[in-house]
Amino acid sequence: MDKSKLKAYAIRTIEARSTELTALNKTLTSHPELGFAEYRTSSAIKAQLEKYGVKDISPVALTGQKGWIHGKTHAASVMLIGELDAVISPNHPHADPITGAAHACGHDSQLAVLAGCAAGISAIAPYLDGDVCFAAAPAEEFIQMELRQALRQAGKIEWLGGKQQMIHEGAFDDIDMAMMVHAETNAPYPRVVTGGKSLGFIGKEIRFTGREAHAATPWLGVNALNAANLFISAINALRETFRAEDRVRVHAIITKGGNIVNTVPADVRMECHVRAENPAVMGLVSRQINNAISGCAYALGVKAEVTDIPGYYPLEQNAELDKLFIANTHLTAPDITIESGLPFGGSTDMGDVSWLMPAIHPSISGFTGALHSADFKVADEYMACILPAKLLTMTVIDLLADGAKEALNIKKLYPRKTKEEYKAMWEASIS
Fold it and tell me: What is the pTM of this model?
C-alpha cells in the first residue's frame, strides 16, 4: 500500500476516534497532577494507549509510561511523546484545590494527541518498516525543587526533569528520533510553527546565611535578606552586558526571606534560572551570576552557598523531520498558516532530547490565554487534539514506510549521541 493510502486510512481512523480523544482531553484537564506525582494521569493514558493497540507498556522515570507498536520489520524506531504533568496555577478554573496544579500549558492535550497517534498508527502498522514508541513523560515543568531534590536523595530519581530522567534510565537507548507537539496560545490566526529554538537554562539553589538578632538591635545581627536584595540588583546591573543575539534571561525568586518579621533574617533562600540560546553562553553567564552571589555575600558579611543544577538544553529542531511535518501540514490543512523559525522564550526538556537525537517540537494553535495562567484553555478542539495527531501520524508514515528509507537517511545524516555523551555535555556546562 502506498503512503498516500496509508495516510488516508490512518486519518480516517483518528477522525473516528475524535469524540473519544476530546473527551480524554477534558478528563485529564479535570484531574491535574504535578511532576513525578502524575499517578492518575499516567494510569489514564496507559489505559487509552492499550485500548488503541500499544503493547509492552512499562513504567519509566517514576511515573512515566513507555510502550510500542511494532512494524513488519525493525529498520528504525520513532518515539512520540506527550507530557503528563501540570503546572502550579491555583486560580485556574480546573486547578486542584490542594496542590494548585492546573493544566495551563496544554500537556493534557498532548496526551490526547499521543492517544490519537496510537489509534492511527495501529491501523497501518503492518505496512511500516519500523517501530513506533509511545512515551508519556513526567515532570516537564521544572518546579518544586525541594521536593525533587528529596526524591533524588531518596534514590528515586537522579535528574530533576522527566525526559532527563528517561535518558538516564536508558528509555531513549533504543530510539532513533523523537517527535511531539506543543500548544501555541493567542495566535493571531490558525497556524503551525516549526523550527523554532527555545532557550536552555541552568538552575540555581542559593542560600545566604547571616546572624539572627532582634529587629530592634539590628547591629547585633547580619542581615542575609539584604544580601539577597543586593544580588537582585547585581543581576539588573549585569543585564546590559548580555548580547541580544544570545537571548540571555536571568530571573530569581526569594523562596524564604527569613523566619519572623521582628528577627534579622539569617536564613534566606532563592531559586534562579540562567537562560540562553546556546550552552556555552549558559555556562558563561552562570559563572557571572555565581561571582555576583559571592560578591554580594562578601560585601555584607554573610555566607553564600550555590548549587548549580542541570536545567534544560536549548531546543535544536531537526531540519529533515521539520520538512516532513511541514509537507504533511500543507497536505492535510492547506488553509492553515505555517511559520518557521519563530523563537520560543521558554525552555523544555525536549531540548535535551534534541541534543541526543533528531527531534522536533512544533507548536500548533488552538488555545487562548497566557501559558501558565488562570485563563489558559482549549479554544479549538480540532486544532488542539485532532490535527496534531494526524500530522505526527503522517510524518511517522513518511519515516517508516517504503523500507524506512526516510528514517534511515536521517539516522545517517544525524547520528545520535549516547547517554554518556549527554551526561558529559552537562558536566561541561556547569563546571
Answer: 0.94
